[in-house]
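Reopening: structure tokens for the pyridoxal-5'-phosphate complex, inputs below.
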Amino acid sequence: MTSPFSFSARHIGPTSDDARRMLESVGYSSLDELMDAAIPEAIRWHEQLSLPAAATEAEVLAELRDLASRNQVLTSMIGLGYYGTHTPGVIKRNVLENPAWYTAYTPYQPEISQGRLEALLNFQTVVTDLTGLETANASMLDEATAAAEAMTLARRSSKSKSNVYAVDGDTLPQSVDVIRTRAEPLGIEVRVVDIERELDFEYFGLHVQYPGASGAVRDHAALIQAAHAQGALVTVAADLLALVLLREPGAIGADIACGSAQRFGVPMGFGGPHAGYLAVRAGLERSLPGRLVGVSRDADGNRAYRLALQTREQHIRREKATSNICTAQVLLAVMASMYAVYHGPNGLRAIARHAHDSATLLAAGLRDGGVELATGRFFDTVTAVVPGRAAEVVTAAAENGVNLWAFDADRVGIACDETTTAADIAAVWAAFGVSGVDSVETGTFAFARTSDFLTHPVFRTHHSETAMLRYLRRLSDLDYALDRGMIPLGSCTMKLNATTEMEAVTWPEFANVHPFAPAAQTAGYAELIGSLEDWLAELTGYDAVSVQPNAGSQGELAGLLAIRAYHRSRGDLDRDVCLIPSSAHGTNAASAVMAGMRVVVVACDENGNVDLVDLDRKLAEHAERLAAIMVTYPSTHGVYETSIAELCAKVHDAGGQVYVDGANLNALVGFAKPGKFGADVSHLNLHKTFCIPHGGGGPGVGPVAVRSHLAAYLPGRGEEAVKAISAAPHGSAGILPIPWAYVRMMGPDGLASATAHAVLAANYVAAKLRDHYPVLYTGNKGLVAHECILDLRPLTKATGVSVDDVAKRLIDYGFHAPTMSFPVAGTLMVEPTESEDLGELDRFVDAMVAIRREIDAVAEGAWPKDDNPLVNAPHTAAMVSGDEWTHAYPRSVAAYPGGMDPVGKYWAPVRRIDGAYGDRNLVCSCPPPEAFA
Ligand SMILES: *Cc1c(COP(=O)(O)O)cnc(C)c1O
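Re-run output (same inputs, fresh job):
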């Protein structure tokens, strides 16, 4: 009997009896024996992990309460891209705290993702309507990375020969930092200037902030014209709420708009996660980075959503991709879109008006008291000039419960928002020593928007809480997430996201803290982040960790930039070759290019391992220029390669650094440490191994971990390091309580046990399915690591039934498909994780075996190749209950295959989606209802 207090027994699916049965199928008598056989001794870590012993769920909640109590929540009027906002309760509980939304995966299987795809299409519509541009993507990681992506988009699209990127001096400082980080390795020169006076040079792109960081609203129309005259593209970094009242970027000629949707109901969270956005004018959509939702149709010709133009993305284009972004901020984009759906255009106008009127009143009181203001025209933020007194004013305001921002010794920024009250304004006046005014004429708004927005019915329908609740329920019911069943996606580690891990995320002491709040107010966060970074260093064998990167892709870039800086510090200016095995994740190659490196592909041998002969050849060929190798361990083939230590040694001998992509750490935790078996740097994916939910495609956290010789180059940590890889100092800090709670509740033994059970589950599935589908690659003793690749290519060749058909047929059986055609085309990669119990594993195995029988029936000619349950999958309720049925197999086979229980069946809402049709007829915002009449 396991203790009712042990969290690991809740996290790990199989009971000890189940595990015994599974071990029997795999041919081992204990987990220890299995792990000894699976993991090469050369990398094995046999010592105890130095982590605190497991605590119960109740104890961990108490510890988190204590940490939370050490954060002080003041009213934030700091602004600079982060604002107070009221998260509507109906959205907080039914999206942010609802596993139907937060445990979903990226909508690569669109037939089972129509709910979140519709929500994302709403998000894109909010962004395109408010910015006045043609096409917006489904979220970026934050405003600063969106601004940096806008720069490279401008570089790709501008005809100008210049390598200069001009940046408005009134830009958010964190955006300038990330723009500089991204520009340097690409040879782009960034000039931050007073755009009204100093823009007298040639540039390929111009970035303006609208309104400026100071709060100033300026008319950029003439500047944009001048920029276009010299062939440059212009990015307007615009505040979405301001755009409710202000003339939109599209109306003044902007090519690109970027920014953040944080203040649309997403808590500040000490810097994240929030949805950044990026939008472009017509003609640039094919250069837009990130995921893009588009409208297409299904096999019956019905409207259906799916990801559009995927050929731009890293998983297909690799080193030629527009960007390395993979995980984005879907959950937060959904929240922001729902905020717009709930408030509608009139609600948003009232909210924007409130922020503006508050600032107007505040400014009038300051002026009345003789305080000079640096901002003429403003939306919600003013800058006060108080020579030599800025620090004193900020301190006095904090004593009154309000945080302000000192730009320097003389200037104080004050930002109003949706939450600003009369008491807040009075507190600010008091801090400046003025008595304020009772009221002020608000009058007309200068530089006002004249066009309408959010005219689509979806933004005018769900304004009562009942209607909103039902809309959210309707959409989430269309989708398949972990709350319905297993999502066995190789490389993505879709494990339990425990409720206790999630709870602290929405506590105000974690949720309502501005990332630039004074350190004295954020001691709880500092301790939480410090201990988490220490634990991750212990688990990986590295010396230093930064949690700043807000996705795996950003951790990769941070790690590669550290390698680059290290070589440069030693005078090795020419080391720019990054070796990457052919099986690597697409982000690897895309990140290497962004770090200014040249990608050289290393072949894999017939066993799926890095081909050491080809490696030797490439090392010899590029010896002088070798910067790094980037390998995934265990490999993306799901195998513990025995030669990893030898590979590391060879690369080091050649003067290169070893980057181990740690996204597959779920196969290593407690059993092997990359920092000890030869690697110099890794990123981890806390949204995989450490239980942050995938959120339908984000948020994520991608910490970068390094050995001591690279520690000085972690983002923000040293003179020679990049200042920032993400907008906020600790990235998506608001969700760090999740991995913290996971490590704390599992303890060292629980974490190692999770790894062993993950390896057991993968080997169990491999053993059960091997006779039906060949397992493509195995390592020691015929074992796989934490995932296994099922090879469908021979079956496809013989029968025409494709991986796609099997993936879609799994929907009929009540499953999310495994990873399709990565890393090998024509295969399925299964990663069951430790959290699935034996019953669910067997249900999956049974479904796969039943599907194999269906494939055989096609092979035998029992069903025609073009009319069978595989090619027609998924089957919708409308299809099987139609008055006519002309197919070669009965309705029951279509609907309830394998004798499945009809009660509680998940029905796909649409039939197979035609992706190519949508790409040919690109529509990426809410189409008018009559379009589907
Ligand atoms: C998931 C993954 C990544 C990318 O991580 P993101 O957080 O999506 O950017 C990189 N490498 C591997 C092997 C992965 O599985």
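Residues 330-368 form the longest helix (39 residues). The radius of gyration is 27 Å. Marking as resolved unless the reporter disagrees.
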